[in-house]
Amino acid sequence: MENPVRVRFLDRTTPPHIATLILLAAISALAMNMFLPSLPGMTDYFVTDYATMQLSVALYLAGNAVLQLVIGPVSDRMGRRPVILFGGAVFILASVACIYAPSVEIFLALRVVQAIVITGLVLSRAVVRDMVPQDQAASMIGYVTMGMAVAPMLAPALGGALDDLFGWKATFWVLAGLGVLVQILVWFDLGETAVTRPASLSAQIREYPELLMSRRFWGYCLSAAFTSGAFFAYLGGAPYVGTEVFGMSPATLGYWFGAPAIGYMVGNFITGRYSVRFGINAMIVTGAFLSAGGLLTSLAIFLAGYGNELVFFGFMIFVGLGNGLVLPNATSGMLSVRPHLAGSASGLGGAIMIGGGAALSVLAGVLLAAGEGATPLLWLMGLTAACSLVTALYTVRRDRVVTTA
Fold this sequence. Notes:
Elements: H1 18-33, H2 39-45, H3 50-53, H4 55-78, H5 80-99, H6 104-114, H7 118-131, H8 134-144, H9 147-166, H10 169-189, H11 201-206, H12 208-212, H13 215-245, H14 250-257, H15 259-278, H16 280-303, H17 309-314, H18 316-337, H19 342-368, H20 375-404
């Protein structure tokens, strides 16, 4: 770094250690997908159908999207630390409440409340941008979001094993316990990094048009949204494909389900090592190409009649690899378009990204209900990833125009 930021672990008078930021990102990923292998069993427990139970993913993502519209501006005004601590406390309470939900309707409502854990992910990225400039931010965000690679890799397997041994409720007990541990770490380690602003919340939100009128912001935002959209469609549809198409048990599905996380971790590592050297635009285009290429290859194999669980889950590694390359770099780009609105940019960009993901998650469930195997999901994911590649190429072109103007 040109101006190294002084960090002391467990000293809340300094910016947080990177380990704290990694855990904040990781618990968001855990809450999203740790319980997914339990969805078929939870469908029976709540005496409902799979499409209704699958809304626990879509509504959670929708809650993420709405909350991010507020989280960013509030943190720009009040600071990152108090907002993260508040979100962590609400998440812990909601996780425990999910265990005692008497009906599927109440459970789904509590999942929306539980979505406030996204505060940690959104603001961990804003904290990084507070500390370092654009290319270094992309590198550091890559390392931070490796927590979102390891967590999805381990979470479904852990959730499936917990379900087999103790039932689905054990997953939410574990989430609540992990929430408490992260909350304690944040209290002692996370020093404030934002320069708080005197503007009111409404004034902060009125600054959104400054971001929305920027083509570069939209380019980075949509590149991230389409790339992650393919993964969110996977979250909505893969449990059905694993159990209904390939006949997997929750534990077996949990092991296979983490395949994208392998690629995501590799992509994050590459981002951390090479974003400063090659620049964020090259990383974004490469990631979008790999994600789209892997999905369209998998679709071609299924259409040729050679598809199986190894092909389906194996090629999902490319989805994770693409996300690992695109998301940290596109996020850094979004936050750098208007650096004084870093928190707002993180929130608004995340809301657009996850709101689209929620819609794709629901659409995946609807398409798979027709009982045509895995191909409808692969079509949806492949087309979404192809859109990411198109927007990534546009963003690079637009960035060149701006920097040469």
